[in-house]
Amino acid sequence: MINRLSLDYKQLPLLATISLFVLMFSFGSLRYTGFFSTQVFLNLFIDNAFLIVIAVGMTFVILSGGIDLSVGSLIALTSMVAASLTMEAQLSPWIVVPISLLVGTVFGVVQGALIHLYNLQPFIVTLAGMFLARGLSYVISVETIAIDHPFFSYMASIQIPLPGDNFISISVVIALIVVVIAIFIGHFTNFGRTVYAIGGSEQSAMLMGLPVGRTKILIYTLSGFCASLAGLIFTFYMLSGYGLHANGMELDTIAAVVIGGTLLTGGAGYVAGSVVGVLILGIIQTIIVFEGTLSSWWTKIAIGVLLFLFIILHRVIVLRSEKKQASN
Amino acid sequence: MPEQQPKLVMENIVKEFPGVKALSNVQLSLYPGEVHALMGENGAGKSTLIKVLTGVYSIDQGSVTLEGKPVHINSPLEAQENGISTVYQEVNLCSNLSVTENIFIGREIKKYGRLAWKEMHQHAEKLLEKLQLKIDVTKLLSSYSVAIQQMVAIARTLNVSAKILILDEPTSSLDRDEVHHLFAVIRQLKKEGLAIVFVSHFLDQIYEITDRLTVLRNGEWIGEYKTKEIDRMELVSKMIGKELQQMDDISSKSTVNQEKIPASFLKADEVGVKGKIDPFDLEMRKGEIVGIAGLLGSGRTEMARVLFGADRADKGKMKVDGKEVNFSSPRNAILKNIGFCSENRKSEGIIPELTVRENMILAIQSIYGWFNYLSKLKQIKIAEEYIELLNINPANPEHLIKNLSGGNQQKVMLARWLITNPTLLILDEPTRGIDIGAKTEIMKLMTRLSKDNKSILFISSEIEEILRTCNRIAVLRNRKKVKEFYNDKELTQQDLMKEMAGGM
User: Fold this and answer.
1) What is the reported pLDDT for A326?
2) Which run of H or of E encompasses B64?
3) Residue of chain B nearest A209, judged by CA positions
4) Where found (chain B) (predicted)?
5) I need a labelling partner for B186 at 20 to 30 A (CA). Which of B97, B171, B380, B402 fits?
């Protein structure tokens, strides 16, 4: 029974995700001239930095067996708050940035507390949060608020050079820092391991004496914070605040996390997987751009097909491991 | 041994749930280095007592003294901090985490502010070695068998210097070698001075491993005995609540007409399910009540589930009305006129938010098919008919079932199946947790049904009820049918209990 050569079943989805990414990148490289370049690869990060950040928060939520539907709306709300404080209240970025980050964090705390204290379904609580945040952004302004401020313009335009004439944006740096911290939290802190335990079995986690309630509130707080941070990155990217920003983004995020190999039922998955999940969504778009004639709706079709494949893969893996256990 | 100071004393423990007194004046004392069995049938209060001790429930009255100091345990975490650990029957660990994590989570070893995996893996291996187990601790818990998962759960409790270890039915899913291994570990822990609470339905195991035992019945404390000094018959009689003298006195006995053998309805030939019930023969004849006697965990419900198609038989043949059948789901059985009233009224039977009428017509509607909708007028007529027949109180078909008493809920469940007019009705503990009046009515009803040429399989923990109503009685022990009796004048409770207890 010691050291069987077979892989743990929890690593299979992650491997599938990475192979899929390599496959798609090779496909693009063979088919289109100019696809196989470092910059095309780096652009995946530049264009999807905000998605990486929310996917990180969402990974913790889904690992614990929950869901957070409010993140897309929180991006819009954060962009609105940042834009109006900068343009209308004329506040300095030193004040605007912390306040914007607080928006999602506070949202997260409240949602987490409701879920824990009243034992509510995360789906319905964050659905309410989704409507609320979206509505609040329109209260600030119905129109787009364009941002014309040196700090934001600087953040939007700065390119960090990399060897070989390549570059990345500041957003990518932020996103990668978030990823590294999240991996540390997930695997080397009590909090991270408790998240996995809750996702495995909340009942067991409680009977093992783990701080289930506190952890759940923290999970949604973390997700809210990530949504706000993503909102700021998104604002750097768009240079505006608008109530329709990131409409439906929460669903893209969930798709990325699931394609990244995290089980929707919780308990198994990796932050790194979600990053690859985001890159896969990005590469689908890139391929469609390179193809030139395809409508952008094909992105949705491709995501839909991939999601189907991945949830079936998860199911098969779970069934197989159950069978294995039964034969034990 | 008992000259020492006890590790734990629980006195006058009272725990009430809405409408039920789960524990009344229960006591328990544990000494270091003893294995103490907690004995009792379903609903005796064993699990409630354990949950009180481990902080899942809080007590309404009474005191808990740990090593001479009074304590109040309000959560599983506090129980663990006090050195009280539990290994539950359905191992309550996280199977998606590694073995190491399951041992350490909640009190991880840290180094430079991060979790020190290497140290934890090493430490976990050492702990498991103490339990004579050498496995790869970095693998997921789910890749190991239940027996090993249980050892991991025990290792987890050893990691916090445990004083009291509660093993709640640890052997129910282990094979013989695994039980042997577990017992070796228990003896070792005993030597180290742990007080161990052992809950099991297997009397053989109780006599093999425990030093003393406490018997509970219906939430009441019956007594504390040295295992050596109480014999099996006496123990069983304490558990099911019949005194020995009383058991010889058979006043009520059904009058069975055995002159002509009635027509057979269902015949099971060597039917069994691996790991649940050993192959058994059983014949159900029309107009006959067959009782199933056996202690909890003896395979009573498992037998009923196979006959009803809720579990698929992997051995043997079953015939209904002379034709061979192979039930793959309860629906097949229902279509063959078999009804099944489950033991778990709460979880498998009633739908609390629906009315009495709606609960009653569920089974018949599913036979008609959902597109062939019964008109509400018809539903009300049926409901009223059965409310009157079974004397259900309150006599209002539109009452929500959750507001009815246990006995009346049970009658609604019965009505649900009676409406479908089954030829064979399987009743799994229909009299449990209901008052005496309702019990008598349900037994009267069974007799009436058998006169109507119905066949009834009656499962009960109450031997007296079985003796009073049944024509034939099958006795189960250790998931095996061990004996079948004709219920004639000579059969006594003692005969049945001898078979139930076994090993004599």
Assistant:
1) 58
2) strand B61-66
3) B77
4) Cell membrane
5) B97
Same domain? For B430 and B315 the reply is yes
Average pLDDT over residues A20-43: 91
Q: How far is B446 from chain A (nearest CA, A)?
A: 40
Tell me, yes or no, whether B211 and B236 share the same domain: yes
Residue B252 belongs to a domain: no
Give the burial class of A325: count Cβ atoms within 10 A of its Cβ; 0-12 exposed, 13-18 middle, 19 or more buried: middle
- Which one, of B66, B100, B68, lies nearest residue B83 by Cα? B66
Nearest to B114 among A188, A199, A325 (CB): A188
Q: Which residue of B has its CA nearest to A207?
A: B76
Structurally, chain B folds into a number of domains equal to 3
B386 and B450 both lie in a single domain: no
Domain boundaries, given as residue ranges, for chain A: 9-322
Q: B74 and B203 share a domain?
A: yes
* B33 assigned to some structural domain: yes
Q: Which of B369, B390, B420 is the last residue of a domain?
A: B420
Mode of pairing for the β-strands spanning B8-17 and B20-30? antiparallel
Sign of the Cα pseudo-torsion (A63, A65, A69, A70, in order): negative
- What pLDDT score does A325 carry? 59
Q: How far is A201 from chain B (nearest CA, A)?
A: 6
CA distance B114 to chain A (A): 5
Q: State which fold the A9-322 domain adopts.
A: ABC transporter involved in vitamin B12 uptake, BtuC (1.10.3470)
Q: What is the pLDDT of residue B488?
A: 82
Residues B72 and B189 placed together within one structural domain of the fold: yes
Q: Which residues from B are below 8 Å from A208, CB to CB?
A: 76, 92-94, 105-106, 156
| Residues B136, A208: C-beta atoms closer than 8 Å | no
The phi and psi torsions of B208 (rounded to 5 degrees) equal -75, -40
B82, B94, B108: which to substitute to probe chain A, counting the most A Cβ within 10 Å?
B94
Q: How far apart are CA A51 and CA A203, in angstroms?
A: 32
Please tell me the least confidently modeled range out of A19-28, A262-271, B86-95, B149-158. Answer: B86-95
User: What is the model's pLDDT at position B252?
Assistant: 40
| pTM exceeds 0.90, yes or no | no
More confident residue, A271 or B219: A271
Query: CA-CA distance, B87 to B168, in Å (whole number)?
Result: 6
Q: Which residue of B has its CA nearest to A267?
A: B96
Chain A residues with beta carbon closer than 8 angstroms to that of B156: 208
Nearest-CB residue to A199 (from B54, B77, B96)? B96
Asked if the structure places residue B97 within a domain, the reply is yes
Q: Are B441 and B392 in contact (CB under 8 A)?
A: no
Nearest residue of A to residue B145, measured between CA atoms: A328
Q: Specify if B400 maps to a domain.
A: yes
Residues B303 and B393 in one domain: no
Across the interface, of B92, B101, B136, the residue whose CB is closest to A207 is: B92
Q: Which of B106, B136, B142 sits opposite A208 (nearest CB)?
A: B106
Does B293 lie in the same domain as B237? no
Of B60, B48, B42, the closest CA to residue B433 belongs to B42
Give the CATH number, domain containing residue B96.
Answer: 3.40.50.300
| Residue B331 and residue B311 in one domain | yes
Query: Among A206, A210, A268, whose Cβ lies nearest the Cβ of B105?
Result: A210
* Domain residue limits at B470: 263-337+422-504
The number of angstroms, rounded, from the C-alpha of B337 to the middle of its chain's C-alpha atoms is 27
Which of B50, B143, B160, B273 would best serve as a mutation to test chain A binding (most A beta carbons within 10 A)?
A: B143
Mutate to test the interface with B, among A11, A181, A193 (most CBs of B within 10 A): A193
E strands along B218-351, which residues? 220-226, 264-273, 277-285, 289-293, 315-320, 323-325, 338-341
Q: Which residues contact B82 (CB under 8 A, 6 or more apart)?
A: B66, B71, B73, B163
Instruction: Compute the half-sphere exposure of residue B464: CA atoms within 13 Å on the CB side of its CA.
Output: 17
